[in-house]
Amino acid sequence: MGKSVSKQFAEEVLKAHNDYRKKHGVPSLKLCKKLNQEAQQYSEALASTRILKHSSESSSGKCGENLAWASYDQTGKEVADRWYSEIKNYNFQNPGFSSGTGHFTAMVWKSTKKMGVGKATASDGSTFVVARYDPAGNVINPGHFEQNVLSLKK
C-alpha cells in the first residue's frame, strides 16, 4: 500500500474523529508520525495473521487502541462512524467502561491529544485498521469517565 493512500486514509479517520469530538466539546486530536508508524506496523501484523486482537502495548496501557476489520476496503469515515455509533449504548448517567462502548469512549476521550492510524489489506482482500491514541483513554480510575467522556453539547 502506497504511503499517500495511508496518509489520506489517516487524515480521513482523523477528520471524522475531530468532527465527533467537536460535538462533545473536546479538543481536536493531531496525527503523530510515530503513532502512525506503530499503528501501520500493527495493522500489517494483524493482516498477516487475520486475527483481530489488541496489542500488548494497549493491554499494558501504553497507548489506547481501536481496531476494525472488514471483508472489503473500508473508508476512514466508515471506520470512525462504526466506532462512534456505540454512543447509542453509552449511559452518560452511569459512566464507565464497557466492551460495547469502548471504541466510542476512546474516540471522544477529552485528555487524549494525539492519534495514529494504520491500515493493511490481508491476502483475502479484507482490511484491518488500527487507531492508536496517546495518552490512552478508557482509564477506569474513579472519576475519569466523568471527566473525559462528555455528553453531546446542546
Give an overview in words.
By secondary structure, this protein is α+β, with helices and mostly antiparallel strands. It is built from six helices and four strands. The longest helix has 21 residues, at 3-23.
Spell out the blueprint of helices and strands.
Elements: H1 3-23, E1 30-31, H2 33-49, H3 56-59, E2 64-70, H4 76-84, H5 102-108, E3 114-121, E4 127-134, H6 144-148
Parallel strand pairs: 1-3
Antiparallel strand pairs: 2-4, 3-4
What is the SS-derived class? alpha+beta
The largest sheet, given as strand count, sense and whether it forms a barrel, is:
4 strands, mixed
H/E element string? Answer: HEHHEHHEEH
Strand order of the largest sheet: 1-3-4-2
Q: Mean of residue pLDDT?
A: 94
Helix content: 40-55%
Alpha carbon gap, first and last residue: 41 Å
Q: What integer value in Å does the Rg equal?
A: 15 Å
Percent of residues in β-strands: 15-25%
Beta strands, count: 4
Poorly predicted regions are none
What is the helix tally? Answer: 6
Tell me the overall shape. Answer: globular
Membrane topology: Lipid-anchor
Family: Belongs to the CRISP family.
Organism: Sphenodon punctatus
Domain SCP: 8-141
